[in-house]
Write a structure and sequence with these properties.
The chain has 326 residues and is an alpha/beta fold. The chain is 55% helix and 9% strand.
Length: 326
């Protein structure tokens, strides 16, 4: 089964808000079921091997309870052998805050193609049935930790998904004689201003969402979640009410019209055609000069914020932009 919205990404998916309520209900039900069983809701392991046949049950369904991090790898891939042990160790360290699913691309070509994987190792996440790319290649551990922390935070704040309780396999006991439950990284405190911004975006009040995200960034310019949210709110505000057919006709008829190209790029991105949107604006930067070129360049940077700086498509587009500028 193909995951929904796999082509539209970023730490917070544009379509993810639609699944938030359902995901939260499923997570609460899973915890209630575990409590009735009188035991832990922990999986048999925090690292699982997944194939195409088991993808829906082991990844899509479980993503309503715990963020699932997918590691696309192959036996012949040397960088995969460097990254894999790091991810497995972090899965144990985070202790149920995410589940690591390993996918052998040689044995699961359909999944490889559905996710649009360009090369391996490649790491994606699925949260509440929504797929998003995290990073590609054997990234430094510090970068991996930062990405996982963001994933855990967004899963909790946007979906109420806090992961599964995990009892260590060695049955370690605490000082009181009870089974020790490892909690993983501490839960970040809820930011009321960021919550208000998310609520406005969920309600479709885009003007209020933009103002709220800007307020958060004024106080905390490094807040990645607020920057992503602001990019999404501004994008949705720009495409609201546009006639897609007319916009695309104008862009085709007037290739030198910067405004026409930017409107078409916004529609491309909102529709999940990320590479098309980036390529259109890079071409516009190449063909223009002065204020028009600067306007196109700044819009491309805005769209990078919608997707997230670690996405490989953003990395590729940044390189293309640098080539046409310098």
């Amino acid at each position: 089964m193909q995951p929904r919205n796999v082509s539209m990404s970023g730490v917070v998916d544009l379509a993810a808000v639609k699944a938030a309520g359902e995901a939260k209900q499923k997570a609460e039900q899973a915890r209630a079921d575990a409590a009735e069983r009188g035991g832990s809701a922990a999986p048999s392991g925090l690292v699982i091997d997944v194939d195409e046949a088991g993808f829906e049950a082991e990844v899509l369904q479980r993503s309503a309870e715990v963020p699932v991090v997918i590691d696309f790898w192959a036996e012949w891939c040397e960088p995969c052998k460097q990254l894999g042990p790091v991810l497995e160790r972090l899965a144990r360290e985070y202790a149920g805050r995410f589940l690591l699913a390993r996918v052998d691309v040689d044995q699961n070509q359909m999944l490889f193609q559905q996710f649009g994987v360009q090369g391996i190792p490649a790491v994606f996440a699925v949260v509440a049935g929504q797929a998003l790319p995290l990073f590609q290649g054997a990234a430094p551990e510090a970068q991996i930790r930062e990405t996982l922390d963001q994933l855990v935070q967004v899963s909790e704040q946007r979906f109420g998904i806090t992961g599964l309780p995990y009892v260590p396999e060695d049955g370690a006991e605490g000082a009181d004689g009870a089974d020790a439950v490892r909690q993983g990284p501490p839960e970040p405190p809820e930011d009321p201003a960021l919550t208000a911004a998310h609520d406005a975006l969920d309600a479709g009040d885009l003007d209020a969402a933009v103002r709220a995200y800007k307020d958060v960034l004024a106080a905390d310019p490094a807040n990645t979640e607020a920057r992503l949210g602001l990019g999404q709110a501004e994008l949705l505000a720009r495409v609201q009410g546009l006639d897609a057919q007319q916009v695309r006709k104008e862009a085709a008829d007037r290739p030198a019209d910067v405004d026409a190209q930017l409107r078409a790029a916004d529609l491309d991105l909102a529709g999940g055609h990320v590479e098309d949107a980036f390529g259109r604006i890079v071409d516009t930067v190449r063909r223009t000069a002065g204020d028009d070129r600067e306007r196109a360049r700044l819009r491309l940077l805005d769209l990078f914020d919608v997707i997230g700086g670690d996405d490989p498509r953003v990395v590729t587009a940044r390189s293309a932009l640098a080539r046409v500028l310098f």
